[in-house]
Structure formats: C-alpha cells, structure tokens
Amino acid sequence: MSMRPLTLGAVALCLVVGLASGNAQQPPASPPQPPAPTPAPTPMPAAPAAAAAEPAAQLPCSTCHDEAKKFIYNPHARGAVKSGEVPNDVCATCHGDGTEHIDAGGDKTKIKKPVGKEGANETCLLCHDVTTDRVSRHAGTHANSGTVNCLTCHSIHHPAPLAQHLVAKPQLELCGTCHSTQTAMFRAKPYKHRLGRGGMECSSCHEPHGRPAQEMLRTTQAGEAPCLNCHSEKRGPFAFPHDAKELGGCLACHEQHGSSNQKSLKRANVYQLCLECHSPITADTLGSQPPSFHNINTPRYRNCTTCHVAIHGSNRSPQLFK
C-alpha cells in the first residue's frame, strides 16, 4: 500500500515535466499578415492612328475665316458645297494652296490675296475673260487698270446685300464714285427712272464691260437704243416716222438721266422743244415749218402735242395727228 502513492506522484511529476518541455520547444506566434494587394488591371493598347487629332492641313478654311462660312451662299461655291462646308479646294482657286498658311498658324505671307490690276488679271480673268463683238475685258472703258479693275466694283466676300453680280455697293452709289454728275441728276431731278427699287439699275441701259463709245449701251438684239427694251410701243416701224427719232434718237427730246420737266423732256415747254427743229424763222431746219396761222404768241399754239398726238410716229397721218 505504501508503493501506490509513490507511483501516482511519479506519474504526476512526469506529466508536469513533459508539459513544461513541450511549452519550451514551441516557437512564439508570428504577427498577423496584411491581405495580399489586388493585382492592377492590364493597360489597354494605345488608340489607333485614325483616332488621333486631325492634321492641321485638313482643317477647313471656315475654322478661322467667317468669310468661308458664309461662302456656301456665294455663286462661286455653287455645286461645290459638301456637308455644309466649302472645300478648301474652292478657296485655293483664288487664294492658292493654303497648307503652309495653316501650318504656320495663319501667316498672311503664305497665302495669296488678289488685289488691284494684277490680282484681277491673274485671278478674275482666269474664268471671266469674255470677249465678244460688244463686250471685252481688255478693250473696254472699264478694262483692268490701276485705277479701275474687277475688284474696284466687285466684292467677292462682302458684296452689297441683295445686289446682283457681287457688286461692292448698290449700283447707283457704286457708279457715282466716278460718274458723279449723272448720279446727282438721278438724286435731284423729279422726273427720272426709278433706280434701285428692284426694277432698273444703271446696268439696265449701260454695259459696264462694253467696248468704247456707243457699245457701252445695252442695245436691243436689232441694234436699237436700249430705251426700246422697255418702251417697245415706240419702236415702229411707222409709215410716217417722226424724223427727230430717226435722226437724233430718243435723246433728241428726252433727258435720260433725269429732268426737271415732265416726261423727262429737255425743255420746260413743248413748243420750245419742237421749235428746235420746226423753226418758222428760217428754212434751214430739220423739220417742216409750221403754217403761218400758227402764232406762237398765242397759247393755243404752244401745246403742239394737243393736235400732234402721235409724236413718235404714225401709220395714218403724215402730220402725226393720229
């Protein structure tokens, strides 16, 4: 009985020693590790070259020039507009290739601007060099010179509103730059053609590109005075024509650029005009002499057209009575 307590004590001692030695051999616990980072996404490949910025040389002229934006309404762009833009090739027709101008950031020395006689001859006449028996760009009164040339009267980018042929100003104002006497008559005289009201203009009667002298008028197809383009009832032919019209034309009696007298006559009183040809004083007159009972001092004989109503010619009366 005395050995049993000893045996139990020895077993307990061995268990205690074994646990102590086990604790002495176990390594210390390591600190907690942070979570592994998420891998970065794989970068996308670079955009293709087609998506790169548009080259400067391909930019339309309208990028910088408002004139090019409005040029879609210009006659020179007719049939060439694409997607609401005027192609640069249209601008290059007059201004030359603009690639260097664009690459240089708008350097004005690298673009062509037609000016003066040289610009008109080298640019405008490339397309508008028309020569006929009545019209000439080289021999006419308004042929290109240092004083007057295409670009004096025409403005390609800034024409007068509603004006035809891209003229720089309304025609009466434009022509008055040089022809001030004639335009002053149109402004000051009460009896005149109504210009600038949608009907007549200076160029209705005058051919600005015509050859010198009488060819500056827009005659009819038969070579008649331009007056007959509108006043065709005065044309004739008549069996009994009025010689004043045959010899002196319309301007024998009428002022074409304006008059102070009714019907644009050259004289205030009709009889004063008639007496220039039908004088009773001498036989050396263009027209017949009035009969002796025509006393010009009497008012009843001063209104010649009261009786001679067919003053432009008649098919029934040699005296132009009807």
State the separation between the terminal residues, measured CA to CA: 182 Å
Strand arrangement across the biggest beta sheet = 1-2
Helix share bin: 25-40%
- Given the helix and strand composition, which structural class is it? mainly alpha
| Largest sheet properties | 2 strands, antiparallel
Mean of pLDDT: 81
Could you give the order of the helices and strands?
HHHHHHHHHEHHE
Q: How many separate helices?
A: 11
Question: How would you describe the shape?
Answer: elongated
Strand content: under 5%
Q: Could you give the count of β-strands? A: 2
Low-confidence stretches: 1-29, 44-54
Gyration radius from CA atoms, angstroms: 49 Å
Describe the 3D structure.
- This protein is mostly helical and 322 residues long.
- 27% of the residues lie in helices and 1% in strands.
- It has eleven helices and two strands, in the order αααααααααβααβ.
- It has helices at residues 3-25, 66-70, 88-95, 99-103, 116-128, 150-153, 171-175, 180-188, 202-205, 243-247, 270-274, and strands at 240-241, 313-314.
- Strands 1-2 form a two-stranded antiparallel sheet.
- The model is unreliable at 1-29 and 44-54 (pLDDT under 50).
Distinctive features:
disordered N terminus, elongated, mainly alpha, single chain, two-stranded antiparallel ribbon, 322 residues
Short description:
This protein has helices at 3-25, 66-70, 88-95, 99-103, 116-128, 150-153, 171-175, 180-188, 202-205, 243-247, 270-274, and strands at 240-241, 313-314.
Secondary-structure blueprint:
Elements: H1 3-25, H2 66-70, H3 88-95, H4 99-103, H5 116-128, H6 150-153, H7 171-175, H8 180-188, H9 202-205, E1 240-241, H10 243-247, H11 270-274, E2 313-314
Antiparallel strand pairs: 1-2
